[in-house]
Specification:
This protein is mostly helical and 157 residues long. It is 78% helix and 0% strand. The protein has one domain. It has four helices and no strands. Helix 2 packs antiparallel against helix 3 and helix 3 packs across helix 4. The protein is elongated. It starts with a helix and ends in a 16-residue tail after the last helix. It binds fe (ii) ion (FE2) (2 copies). The site of one fe (ii) ion has 6 residues, from helix 1, helix 2 and helix 4. InterPro entries: Hemerythrin-like (IPR012312). Pfam families: Hemerythrin. This is Hemerythrin superfamily protein.
Length: 157
């Protein structure tokens, strides 16, 4: 699969989970916790494959978007720390919805920048064959992604 198509599919999956969370009842604690567990899994895996495979490849291929990649890693840093906090927070906690809401805002902003400003340039520079190669690598790497958000490399940067 094409790397950018794969990443956009992930973004869609996460956006659907965000909508589910937003539509869940205020007191639907169990449901909200289940959704958040899925969000943690999806975003940790996604950040991992981007950081291990896609970001370095794109940075090398399109040096003029290097600043974008560096900002993206900083944004991942914030997201994975928020994910790790959410893992420990009870859904009944008064900060739970607030933390998820800010997480969602951060990720939506991040995804929009990736998709609108960055992916088109990367697609042009990398070309179809290289993107397919990276897509295959990322599909395989998903199986090796850590469960712990803080095991993703941006957590330590
Ligand atoms: Fe990203
Ligand atoms: Fe992404």
């Amino acid at each position: 699969m094409d790397a950018i198509v794969l990443l956009k599919d992930d973004h869609k999956t996460v956006e659907e989970l965000f909508k589910k969370f937003e539509n869940a009842g205020e007191r639907a604690y169990k449901e909200k916790q289940r959704i958040v567990e899925q969000i943690i899994h999806e975003l940790t895996t996604h950040a991992y494959i981007e950081e291990e495979i896609f970001y370095p490849a794109a940075r090398a291929a399109v040096p003029e978007t290097e600043d974008h990649v560096l900002e993206s890693v900083e944004e991942h840093h914030v997201v994975v720390w928020m994910l790790s906090e959410l893992r420990k927070l009870e859904p009944e906690d008064e900060r739970y919805d607030a933390k998820v809401t800010v997480l969602i805002e951060n990720v939506r902003h991040h995804v929009e920048e990736e998709e609108q400003e960055w992916f088109p340039k990367v697609r042009e520079s990398l070309g179809r064959n290289r993107l397919r190669e990276l897509g295959e690598q990322m599909e395989k790497a998903k199986a090796e992604a850590p469960a712990d958000p803080l095991a993703v490399s941006s957590a330590r940067q």
